[in-house]
Amino acid sequence: MPNTKKSDSAFIVQGSILAVASIISRIIGLVYRIPLTAIIGKTGNDYYGTAFEIYNIILIISSYSIPLAVSKLVAARLAAGERKNMMKVLKGSLVFAAISGGAGCAIVWFAADLFTGWLKTPYASPALRVLAPVILIVAILGVLRGFFQGLGTMVPTAISQIAEQITNAIVSVVAAYSLFAYGKKVGAVLGNEKQVAAAYGAAGGTLGTACGALIALAFMIFVFFLFYSRFKAKVVRDHTVNYAGYGQIMKTLVFTIVPVLLSTTIYNISSIIDQTIFKNIAVAQAYSAGEISEWWGVYTGQFKVLINVPISIASAMAASAVPTLTKAYKAGDMKLCRRQIHSATRFTMLIAFPCAFGLMALGGPIMMLLFSDPDKTSQMMMTVGAASVIFYSLSTLSNGLLQGIDRLRIPVRNAAIALVIQALFLVFLMRTCRLNIYAVVLANAFYALLMCVLNGIAVRRYSGTKQDIHTTYIEPCIASIVMAIAVWLIYTGFHALTHSNAISTILAILAGMLIYLFLLLITHSVTEEELLRLPKGAALVRIIKKTGLL
Q1: Do 429 and 442 form a contact (C-beta atoms < 8 A)?
Q2: For 295-298, which contacts have Cβ atoms below 8 Å and span 24 or more sequence positions?
Q3: I need a surface site. Which of 154, 178, 342, 385 has the fewest CB within 10 A?
Q4: In the 8-state DSSP scheme, what is residue 226?
Q5: Lowest-confidence range among 80-94, 126-140, 188-202, 471-485?
């Protein structure tokens, strides 16, 4: 029987490591999007965002499920002591990744014009073609990340993510600047300067993604060979009787990947459906092409980029949950499963609630600070849609939790149900209420809410987990509401004194973090034991104890 507290603590620590790396990566991504947006403009953001929407769907179909599936299979064989079979999983997965990633690469390259034309954004084609080889790179990268996650360490994945994003940021800005200038010259000759310059600039932005993925892959290969001798020694000592053939490995891999693939495909294809419905109905409602392009550019290049920062925490917790839950589930330790589900959900909600309410309170000032965008549309978009941070965080996590307890088909079914209802809701908001881009924001949040409810019912049914409503949801919610009111008052007061949006916003955000932590401590909503599970938790506890709050 594993040590429950030790396993639970390790699970949270590994999840926290990946969460911190994800936040750093997202922040880097957010920061470089500021100069990128300034270079390529809202129209360029439309092309850039459209290329990524298509790329993401093909990536999901071909490669996105690989890390989760590999980590699950490796963790299961590691728990059984089958190290030779574990290495066979790695080799079989690399073959699978090369085939699926190569196919995805070819599809994107040759069908780029078809895809972008279908979405009424033909100038996104160059950016999409730059992303084609990234699909193959990410597929192989995903296998190596999944392998280390299955072994129970998130450190290689975390470091590779940060290295990937730093490279992405530098190359994206430099390439976008250079290609945008070149595109202006080409566009001047063709008589279509704005669109051509934006298209070339967007392609420069996606070039950074390609270079970042390549650097991350090189790092993961380096780490693998660094520790290969240790792996090999353990494999030699493995005396497993039941050796799995590569045919069996590939079959298991396919049967593990396909449900995850279908779930993530349906889960993420909603963005493509949103774009198709929105742009076609908006054209029919006589909005200009410029308005539609700028609205979608703000939605993908500003709103979604910002809310994805806190949502990345849920993705990290889900990634760390799958291998640990798989081990506990295979061992029949449902008590440990329930503890880990409860811990992951509570940790995610402690972060998601303050982020959501903070964005509601300071959505406009943050948009002004990051993107120098005085447009009320972008500011209202954040205020209206910030609640989706909570819903997407919880639905993303619950997807991973269900996959960790071998309920792979349930997220597929739930995503399909939510997708149909969400599409109908979006059509209703566009046609009846004429909410233009706000309809997309609301429908997006509604989809995530449906997934929360459906997945939550399934998690409780199949794991027996009864989440503590008060400590998991009510306490963080109340503390976040109080914090949001406080930061709005702080921002308003400092802005009246300094007339500086930047100073007022930064001070309000920093004050909000301290206020939220203070509220959690004085209401005993977070315990010393929970703080100690975090990276550098002991140092944090020592500092807090000096204040007398713990």
Answers
A1: yes
A2: 295/377, 295/436, 295/437, 296/46, 296/49, 296/50, 296/437, 297/41, 297/42, 297/43, 297/44, 297/45, 297/46, 297/49, 298/42, 298/45, 298/373, 298/375, 298/377, 298/378, 298/381, 298/437
A3: 178
A4: H
A5: 80-94
